[in-house]
């Protein structure tokens, strides 16, 4: 009997040791797991605290529908580039290219700038975003009128042309008393700035402001040019509030009278050529906007006089965009935003005075305002860059 009790105690003790061993291992593993989780959490929070980025610039090439984002690593930890996300309007997009100093790499080190290129970002105007506007009252602008935007912003200012950055800073002024006497309209296209001068001729300038030539001076075919537009093939001139002429953009040679006075066209005031030819026209003192095919046919009124009050300037989105808009300066104090059929999308009026003179669009809406100088209106699209640990920066385009 003594043996049985001893055996039972031995079995009980062995079982206890076995169960204790299992419990200890389980508890130890759980503790290690919790400890590792705390370590991982601490490491994540530490890296997150040391992570910081700043979107330093957005460059939108409207004609090629390409967005370039420059993001600076202002933190103290390296970041994995392939774990960086880009959201446009709240939707994740795939970048076409991600480079540092024009080189594709995997790691984004502190103080380096990552350049992200997005193809077809599908930018469009969003009338619901508020506030959107900001203004630049630059001392370089005294009496701004017509405006055209490329990589820089070109604004007629009296008898000169002020060249400003897209952020609104004065870069230089084109002053040329010999060739630039009384500019009335201008368009930047490709490598040249085309200026309609003295309501008589079109001169070409390089983008750095150097005069190239008197490109169109043709009183026989276009005796009193009032407004111009430029596309990949032609220079278009409204002649004497009467008809629309077309010139070869390479040679400057007269091509044809594209749209004659009479029929749809009565007294054209301003023209812009994009996917269509858009004309601000007047009949018996009432204004309307007409749209034509690029061959001058199919003229139709898309905006009637009851929606307009002395419209002064018109611009349109680039041809290759999925969603294109018209931007019309109306009653010297607001910009009407329309689709290509003339339906209203929204209105821009905040931060504008009652002396607005011109409008153009290239990624943002640029307005020349004699009271406020250059006013830049965001389209209302948000651009957000998110790092691997969730740190982000956001900016409006």
Give structural notes:
By secondary structure, this protein is mostly beta strands. It has three domains: 49 residues; 87 residues, Immunoglobulin-like (Sandwich); 245 residues, 6 Propeller (Neuraminidase), CATH 2.120.10.30. Helix content is 12%, strand content 46%. It has one helix and 34 strands. The chain has a four-stranded antiparallel beta sheet, with no helix packed on it. A four-stranded antiparallel beta sheet has the order 5-4-33-34, with no helix packed on it. Strand 15 and strand 16 form a beta hairpin. The radius of gyration is 31 Å and the shape is elongated.
The level 1 CATH classification of the largest domain is Mainly Beta
Looking across the biggest beta sheet, what order are the strands in? 1-2-8-6
Distance between the termini: 92 Å
How many β-strand stretches?
Answer: 34
Using the coordinates shown, work out and report the CATH topology of the largest domain: Neuraminidase
Helix fraction? 10-25%
The CATH superfamily of the largest domain appears as TolB, C-terminal domain
Tell me the count of domains.
3
The major beta sheet can be summarized as: 4 strands, antiparallel
The radius of gyration over CA amounts to: 31 Å
The second-level CATH architecture of the largest domain is: 6 Propeller
Would you tell me the overall average pLDDT?
90
């Amino acid at each position: 009997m003594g043996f049985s009790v001893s055996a039972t105690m031995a079995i009980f003790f062995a079982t206890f040791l076995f169960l204790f061993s299992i419990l200890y291992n389980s508890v130890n593993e759980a503790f290690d797991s919790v400890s590792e989780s705390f370590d991982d959490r601490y490491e994540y929070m530490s890296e997150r605290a040391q992570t910081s980025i700043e979107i330093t610039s957005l460059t939108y090439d409207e004609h090629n529908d390409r967005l370039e984002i420059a993001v600076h690593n202002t933190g103290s930890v390296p970041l994995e580039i392939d774990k960086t996300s880009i959201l446009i309007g709240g939707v994740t997009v795939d970048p076409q290219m991600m480079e540092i100093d024009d080189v594709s790499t995997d790691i984004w080190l502190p103080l380096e700038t990552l350049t992200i290129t997005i193809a077809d970002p599908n930018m469009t105007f969003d009338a619901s975003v508020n506030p959107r506007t900001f203004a630049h009252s630059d001392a370089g602008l005294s009496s701004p009128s017509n405006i055209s935007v490329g990589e820089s912003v070109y604004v007629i200012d009296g008898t000169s042309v002020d060249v400003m950055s897209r952020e609104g800073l004065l870069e230089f002024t084109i002053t040329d008393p010999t060739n630039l006497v009384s500019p009335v309209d201008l368009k930047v296209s490709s490598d040249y700035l085309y200026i309609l001068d003295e309501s008589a001729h079109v001169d070409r300038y390089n983008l750095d402001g150097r005069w190239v030539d008197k490109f169109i001076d043709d009183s026989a075919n276009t005796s009193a040019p009032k407004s111009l537009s430029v596309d990949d093939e032609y220079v278009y001139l409204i002649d004497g509030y009467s008809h629309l002429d077309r010139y070869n953009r390479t040679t400057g040679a007269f091509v044809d009278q594209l749209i004659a006075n009479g029929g749809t066209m009565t007294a054209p005031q301003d023209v812009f050529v994009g996917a269509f030819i858009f004309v601000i026209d007047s009949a018996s003192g009432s204004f309307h906007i007409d749209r034509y095919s690029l061959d001058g046919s199919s003229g139709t009124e898309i905006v009637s006089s009851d929606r307009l009050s002395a419209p002064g300037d018109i611009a349109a989105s680039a041809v290759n965009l999925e969603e294109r808009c018209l931007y019309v300066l109306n009653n010297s104090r607001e910009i009407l935003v329309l689709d290509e059929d003339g339906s209203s999308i929204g209105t821009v009026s905040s931060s504008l005075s009652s002396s607005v003179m011109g409008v153009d669009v290239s990624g943002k809406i640029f307005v020349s305002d004699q009271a406020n100088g250059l006013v830049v209106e965001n389209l209302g699209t948000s651009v957000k860059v998110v790092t691997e640990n969730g740190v982000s920066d956001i900016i409006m385009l």
